[in-house]
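User: Last request for today: this protein with S-adenosylmethionine, please.
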Amino acid sequence: MTAPFTVELDSSPGRRQGEERFVLHHGDETREVVLHDYATVYSVPGLYEEVVQQRLQCASPATVADALIEAGATVGTAPGDLRAFDLGAGNGVVGEEMVARGVTVVVGADGIGEARDAAHRDRPGMYAHYLVGERLDGAEVARLVREEHLTALVAAGAVGEGHVPVDALGELWSTFPPGSVLALTLKDGGPETGDHDVADVDTMLAGFDDTTVVVRRRFRHRFSMAGAELTYLVLAAVRR
Ligand SMILES: C[S@@+](CC[C@H](N)C(=O)[O-])C[C@H]1O[C@@H](n2cnc3c(N)ncnc32)[C@H](O)[C@@H]1O
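Assistant: Here's the final one, the structure of the complex with S-adenosylmethionine:
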């Protein structure tokens, strides 16, 4: 089925990720949309997948799901025994990658209600719970981790870069039991760019004396709209 919209990406060089934009022709309407205006992007079914997954070839969802499985194997946990909390879940692209690998996806969370609505619209039934909030209620998360026997915390392209703060990630990780797996992708443009998300996460994880990083690789997260390769780090850790 042809999507009822077309897009023209703005390939002007030098734009930061948060500034990238495209023109959306949708029905009778034409408007400019900033890629990080997620509320608008998620409001059109298939738009996120077309721009981010197809046109910009975003590899983070598949890469984080592979790292999760790989890290689980280091502690003898089969994919089917992983029960995941998908942080910054958006409309469920990462959840779908995990389900495809046999993981049970239980909870999604995002800063905006439009992401929750899009996840329920596009992937109905995948998330049993979907939390909304820029800063989640730690007690509520701890209760879900306990009652739903969660064993995996996953965040693709959702930590740092103006998204989930690293200390909030640390608070969530502290609620997961021994044997759990953390898998995330982080912007890592290299030391010359001033990116500090990787350093911040390393410092946060060093504060957990029971947590060991078992997967750490740089990869092409996606192309920028100007055609440059954007490099991220995939990192997975286990709690002994
Ligand atoms: C680049 S998108 C990635 C979405 C999804 N993980 C994927 O890979 O398809 C980043 C997501 O993080 C969400 N986000 C931003 N700040 C957040 C916060 N403080 N807490 C939870 N989610 C947040 C955004 O709304 C958006 O859905």
